[in-house]
## 1
Amino acid sequence: MPHDEWDWTPPPADPDRPAQVRRILRLFHPYRGRLALVGLLVAASSLVTVASPFMLREVLDVAIPHGRTGLLSLLALGMIAAAVVNSAFGVLQTLISTTVGQRVMHDLRAAVYGRLQSMPLSFFTRTRTGEVQSRIANDIGGMQATVTSTATSLVSNLTSVIATIVAMVALDWRLTVVSLLLMPLFVWISHRVGDERKKITAQRQRQMAVMAAMVTESLSVSGILLGRTMGRSDSLTKAFSVESERLVGLEVRASMAGRWRMASIGIVMAALPAVIYWAAGIALQAGGPAISLGTLVAFVSLQQGLFRPTVSLLSTGVQMQTSVALFQRIFEYLDLPREITEPEKPMRLERIRGEVRFENVSFSYDQSSAALTGIDLAIPAGGSLAVVGPTGSGKSTLSYLVPRLYDVSGGRVLLDGVDVRDLDFDTLSRAVGVVAQETYLFHASVADNLRFAKPDATDEEIQAAARAAQIHDHIAALPDGYDTLVGERGYRFSGGEKQRLAIARTILRDPPVLILDEATSALDTRTEHAVQKAIDALSAGRTTITIAHRLSTVRDADQIIVLDKGRIAERGTHRKLVAGNGHYAALVRRDTHLTARV
């Protein structure tokens, strides 16, 4: 599906890797106490692990050859105890590290969601919903293994490797040198594999985001209706299949990237015991110092013990490099600039009268053209303003400046004499209510949808709001009443019923300032009449800004303005503007003609 032009695309970045790693490590800073405890457990576990080969050497060189049964029993019990203690330490490590990892993932999810909640409306108009969902679900979900176990695995394996090497040196430094000759090569190979997987992971996550967006758009109720009525179901399925096929290739590449190179490390590490035996034999034949059987077996045991944490450590390094790509995608969202923020010392209005003023307001979505220019308006508390004009003249944009869905580019919008940019968000949300043309309802019960406006509302308050919105009788007649599920986006209800539910929700919120953004433009005449009665009940005593499509709904407004190309072309009452025979009169004649044809 050719939707790429709709995507929000972050600016290209080539972040400094050490800085990126430091930022990732800062995520774990609040849990440093628990991680310190994990470190202690890891250190203790490593000491217990390397003690077993030394006890094995004593068994082979002392206890068995000299028939010391008591020492043999003690050493055997010690080796069993070491295994038990090591297992117990491992369980505790897993519990603590998993808890810390899940808390870090929770912090990331909450931080990304909170940042997105603070983004301006323009961000969501240019970003596909599936892309946003993919960042939260797929990208953060893909980091689960990293944040829950990788950190502990890194510390555990690194400690084990260091402790094992120290023990190997203590047993025989010459055999230790032989064992470690190839280690730099292994590190270089794992680094190359990590870089390769990081690139593939970034491509895979982008592809998953594309697929998530396709699913969100095409498998919604609206998407299914559009696809079937347009006869495009098969083409949508084929398009999804193509994208899924691309993901198959990326998944295979991600799985196989560097697999043979990492396997070669395993082969070499597995062959090292034979090399150790060979080296010990050659040294003995060449007249070098003899190595006891116990020392040799203990050394090989340590060397084999070194194999697992070393390979795991190299794999962890690869995994961390891969995860950097996921962290980078999350950090892109966390680094999005907040265009609309509260001031450092926000003002709070306890009693809101509802006076709204626009003082020389201008606004533009980008630098190329202005959506609004030179807007001066005054709406007294309890007064009504109607905004009319052709499509694209800036009507909705004007109304969205009051609740700060956008911020002005120039001038000021005042609420009770205070610039809305100086008010706290709570004051604005209490002050301004919006009823839009497209009503959004959650997939929840009618009561839950209404309580979204006032979580502590009683059943009586909900029913009173529904009565005022002319929708109570319809709800009460449903089999489940207010417990009826509205369906996705309210598809169980008609357009007029959804609008009245939205009005009831706003009545429950009880805002002093009301914005009606073409709330009846998509309704038939009979339904519009019922909704208009609900709007009249809602508007009573409130400052009302009505974005009008049908001019018959705004005849009684205290003030009407006509917008044309972002400027106020005319203003006045209905009677005055009709008598002026200008833009408004032309719109009235067109509206009358269209109504007569219907």
## 2
Amino acid sequence: MARQAQAAHPPAPVPVTGAQSLVLSLESVGAEVVFGIPGGAILPAYDPLMDSVKVRHILVRHEQGAGHAAEGYATATGKVGVCMATSGPGATNLVTAIADAYMDSVPMVAITGQVASAAIGTDAFQEADIRGITMPITKHNYLVTDAAEIPRVIAEAFHVASTGRPGPVLVDIAKDALQARTTFAWPPQVDLPGYHPVTKPHAKQIREAAKLIAASRQPVLYVGGGVIRAGAHEELAALVEATGIPVVTTLMARGAFPDQHPLHLGMPGMHGSVAAVTALQRADLLITLGARFDDRVTGQLSSFAPDAKVIHADIDPAEIGKNRIADVPIVGDAKAIIAELTAAVSASEAPRPDLSGWVRRTQGWARSYPVGYTPSEDPGALAPQLVIETIGRIAGPEAVYAAGVGQHQMWAAQFIDYERPGSWLNSGGAGTMGYSVPAAMGAKVGQPDRVVWAIDGDGCFQMTNQELATCVINDIPIKVAIINNSSLGMVRQWQSLFYDKRYSNTDLHTSVGSRVPDFVKLADAYGCVGLRCERPEDVEETIRQAMAINDRPVVVDFVVERDAMVWPMVPAGVSNDAIQIARDAAPQWDREDSDAVEQSTDADHSSQTATADQDA
């Protein structure tokens, strides 16, 4: 009966259990992979899942890993990621990944088992109100106690997760609903009267935006992750071609516009490029596409882009005006908005503004203050930036890079060139340590023909490295670069800068003084290939060795200098005008120049950076 029920979509209702109905529903919505762990309340679903020939289940080692893997799969492919866990602690272990997906607008469906409906609210064994817990961090969530509702709920969950502003949806199913007899028919009747995302922009707002662009002399395209989620990178390229406006791409938008394009100024924000940060500050118009004026980008909000008018386009109307008032708000899908904006600008009979001077200024900032680093005074010390830069050069733009959170995340955003969407995975909004390895695993499952590097810190890696076992057993050959500075690096950097070098509880003992754990031995214990690199002259050969191994995961312990810092930097809570290129060193602007074009040379910049790094 189970195999017969799981055949192609039946023309008439077929008698099944609720658990069979769940699996058939997942097959019918096109789910390919489920990352999960069975347990008592969800166990009925695992029996028919074993017979499915359409849905692959990957048994992870921790539910948080299941959630991040579903995120990585979704981000790399653009499809809905799926994770599954049992009730109580199984479900609560998904919470971090659900919150992460919510902050970064990742389409994900999390399916959890729940105690039998009669026991709900009695503090039964392994009961947790996961629906109540996740209410603030999901687009929507469901508690299913009637088996007949399963097909409709799964169809709705996938629709809600993947449309409008993408995000996570939770489906909590009582154990007795999974065990009950019901019927399955597809497609179910779906009725969501309160859910109608606006995708088509208002023509009047497009016209008003085109007028502002025509009147602007110092515009900047401020591009956020919504452009990637909408698949609007080609439309963005056409808009830039039509207007010649400089572009900045946020941490979540890396790859939305090619890094090598001459109009790309880099990443704005706390650790953004001088050119990107300064262009936003000096702009007279921000054309904001799928970005949310995050505090890491704006710095002190009251001083952000003080002379700029704002066009704010976003599919989520709640984002518009939340942090910065928009002169022209546009609600809709980024792909449609950018296409119509390009058409309106191209069709306008108004004379095109001459942006050549503005472009020269922004490109001058980029030339004078490139994102770079100064090698350590110790010629034998391994610079983390060198490691990441070399990985990007050798693996190339077709690879996928999944970063953890901290210094290595910022260096990966800075020193790898991203030329296509879906090549950069990171936890931007939540800043979740432990994201990298399981996200890379999910990305490799979704993009098996691409090289996938997890660029992780020695702190982040120890939170979810158990998923290496999942990768070995399921033939998921990711490559892991541990940027091992024996510290919680970003916290140590802040302690260096703001707490008089009082390094309270940031020493991890992973390479300085001891190796706890020894990452090479740990990799070997999991069945991976473990490598170690401690000298600059060995970096390229080590990476090429890792690239040549494709039959199992590779873990490389890059033992790097622990005092390297991420620059540029805007300290938290201050104006972006206070950007520093190194410790106690800021860009040197010629105050007498009305255009504020800097007169300092690249040599001056290198000298300042070297002095600052010595101080650090």
